[in-house]
Amino acid sequence: MTSDRFMRIHDEELLARGERVLGPEFRAMHQRVMEVTALTSRLNVLPFDDEDGKAALFEQILGRPLPAGVTIYPPFFTDHGLRLDLAERVFVNQGCTFLDYAGIRLGRGVMVGPKATFITMGHPVDPDERRAWLTGAPIDIAENVWIGAGATILPGVSIGRDAVVAAGAVVADDVPEASLVTGPKGTVRRRW
Fold first, then answer.
1. DSSP secondary-structure letter at 73?
2. Active-site residue 123, yes or no?
3. CA–CA separation, 182 and 171 (whole Å)
4. Which residues, 6+ apart, have CB-to-CB distance to 155 below 8 Å?
5. Is the dihedral of CA 154, 84, 11, 8 positive or negative?
6. What is the structure's pLDDT at 188?
7. Which residues fall within 8 angstroms of residue 114, CB to CB, at 6 or more apart?
8. HEC states along 123-165?
9. pTM of the entire structure?
10. Which of the two residues, 133 and 167, has the higher pLDDT score?
11. pLDDT higher for 47 or 12?
12. What is the mean pLDDT of residues 42-61?
């Protein structure tokens, strides 16, 4: 396993007896995902100008009120919500997805373009392990970063202050401060 953080999907003892029963940590995560999916479904059909309704639902999704000056345009998607840390003056455009179980922090003044995706969880590459485990690592975005439309930020990535991630970029490695990252990284790196 290459990640510092991982979760077994199935109860190991029951799996050894041939029963596919979800483990307790995975069950708890799954329950939260179901709750938040219901909340975001309600959020995403509210009239755009229903500020009170949106604020109430965001408070339930995030477990706290939105910080001062934070703007999030629905539709908005998250799988957990409680591990999404938004600083003041964050702007999130329409159609963004935050899979935040391992933690996502957006620093002050971060701007996120439409349909950007932040993913903190995944599965091991090894085919024998991929259905048994979840892997994950937090995402940390420093102050005043601009994430372009359709960008994808992968587990464990840190992006430095004042950096720009171009539209459509896939970010699998840390980004230094005051730099521009562009392009896909869909290159074959390993074969099995």
1. P
2. yes
3. 9
4. 3, 102, 119, 120, 121, 122, 135, 136, 137, 138, 139
5. positive
6. 40
7. 93, 94, 95, 96, 149, 150
8. CCCCCCCCCCEEEECCEEECCCCEECCCCEECCCCEECCCCEE
9. 0.88
10. 167
11. 47
12. 97
